Amino acid sequence: MTAQETTQTEQKEQAFLPKEMPDLPREPEELPSQTQDSPVYYQQSNQVHTLLSWTAPGRPFRKRKKEFYLSSLLIMLLVEIILFLFSEYVLMLLVLSLTFVAFALVTVAPHDFHYRISSEGITIEDHFFLWQELYDFYFRRRDNMDILHIRTHAFLPGELTITLGDIPKDHVKSILLSYLPYREYIKPTFMENAADWLAKNFPLERDSTPEKTTQVAS
Predict the structure, then answer these.
(1) How far apart are CA 197 and CA 53, in angstroms?
(2) Count of CA atoms in the C-beta half-sphere (13 A) of 138
(3) How would DSSP label each residue in 86-147?
(4) Which helix (H) or strand (E) holds 200?
(5) Exposure string over 35-70, b if 16+ CB within 10 A, otherwise e
(6) Cα–Cα distance, 197 to 4 (Å, whole number)
(7) Alpha carbon 124 to chain centroid distance?
(8) Which residue segments constitute the domains of the chain, with CATH numbers given?
(9) Cis upstream peptide for 157 (omega within 30°)
(10) Strand pairing of 127-130 and 121-124?
(11) Which residues contact 181 (CB under 8 A, 6 or more apart)?
(12) Residue among 199, 197, 169 nearest 182 (CA)
């Protein structure tokens, strides 16, 4: 075979070969940076954030005067005499126990609790409640202190009582509205109405807060 024939044969073989290699899939290192960074962004969005935390007494507390204790003892003695005349000795022990508990609550000041509202729920000391476990919330004022009441889906505890201390009520309300419905009005129960009526008509002590007088300019 001559050199000219050899050259022609090589040219024919090269004509059937592909001129360029087809595009191969890119290596993982060549993927866009957005795909690599997306898992990091997903982890950051799932972090638990503390929305509000504060420390306040575990329950409303107000120091009582001697007049309160004397009035309570007189009422207790009157009830005990009536029960004794009807030979209700078990009820007499019950009245004594309730009086002792009431005196203990108004005498011993409560210790401070730590409260925390986060993106996952509410923490009261060592107890944590998820938002899914809570139902709704409302506010009440007792002994010159705003109290937050949060009702639960479960029968127990049924309701969480949280003292706000120096935290503004409107600020707490604006945070909770993103997670729980707000109940503007709660109908008082019979016991609450009875207690308010007795406290208004038969107070155990006089209010020492001086009444504010207004002067009308002539």
Answers:
(1) 36
(2) 9
(3) TT-HHHHHHHHHHHHHHHHHHHSPPPEEEEEEESSEEEETTEEEEGGGEEEEEEEEETTEEE
(4) helix 190-201
(5) eeeeeeeeeeeeeeeeeeebebebbbbeeeeeebee
(6) 124
(7) 8
(8) 50-194 (2.30.29)
(9) yes
(10) antiparallel
(11) 136, 137
(12) 169
pTM of this prediction? 0.65
pLDDT in tens, the chain (218 residues): 565 566 666 666 665 555 555 555 555 555 455 444 444 433 445 788 999 999 999 988 888 888 888 988 999 999 999 999 999 999 999 999 999 998 988 888 889 999 999 999 999 999 999 999 999 999 999 888 899 999 999 998 999 999 998 999 999 999 999 999 999 988 888 888 888 887 787 777 776 544 443 333 33
Given 3-state DSSP classes, what are the helix, strand and coil percentages for the chain, each rounded to the nearest 5? 40, 20, 35
- Residue in the block written with tokens 């705003």: 146
Residue found under tokens 């309570």:
72
| H or E stretch at 56 | strand 50-57
